[in-house]
Amino acid sequence: MEGSLQDVDHAEGVRITRLTVPAAVINGSEGIDIQCDYRLSIGDSGLVLKWFLNGNPQPVYQWIHGKHPQLMGELRHKFSRSTRGPNAVHIANPTTDIAGEYQCLVSTFRTEDYSSKTMVVFVPEKDMSFVQIYNENWGVDFSCRVSGIYPEPVLILYRELRMTKVPLKMVEINKTIENGLYTLVSRATLQEEELYTTTVIFCELQIPGTNYTKQKTSVYYSDAASESPTLNFKVFDFYLTLFFIKAFFVAW
């Protein structure tokens, strides 16, 4: 007999107790297992466990109790039997074409239960840059660019005011796709009167459905900020000159 039945209790019908599917993995990373734990009722028979991907009516995996598990469908070469048991499936090399919603269906002759979770397979950015360009006619242009990334990311431009993130307004976003990978550019323009003597602008990269984030900063210095050190030095130099003149006359 291939595999074994899981816990049995007195509840009515089969029930999925835990579904283990990672929320996010990096494209081409090490192998992972997805697992569907269930509980049977006393007297249940005819157990069948199936895994589906993205709503396709044909399962990618099927196990009928008492028989060998089967890998099915066009993507069956992406999956294999897991050492964890017949209720689990091994994915040796997660890639973007097998990302999406995984659904486990467990059924018996009497009842069935199902549960699903989404797995994002993402490609980190190849490059990320954040620059500022000053123009006396329109102000300061802040431009954040990210390339070679999947799925489509989110770029947020913001500044911090009183420890609070305040998104910049009127942000222009340009997007291109090449070989399935995204390039995104977010731009925002601020007038000089909107900026402090020293202003830090942030660009934050996020990949939806994951905890993956990165951040770049661009620091704006006004003319007043750049002139202040020179002014302070001149004042210091003036007092130092007076000190030497006074000392000279006292000595004289």
From TrEMBL:
InterPro entries reported in the protein's UniProt record: Ig-like_dom, Ig-like_dom_sf, Ig-like_fold
- Sorted alphabetically, which CDD domains does this protein's record hold? Ig
Q: Which PROSITE patterns match?
A: IG_LIKE
Q: Which residues form the Ig-like domain?
A: 14-120
Highest taxon listed in the record's lineage:
Eukaryota
- SUPFAM superfamilies, alphabetized: Immunoglobulin (SSF48726)
What protein is this chain from?
Answer: Ig-like domain-containing protein
Q: Which organism is it from?
A: Laodelphax striatellus (Small brown planthopper)
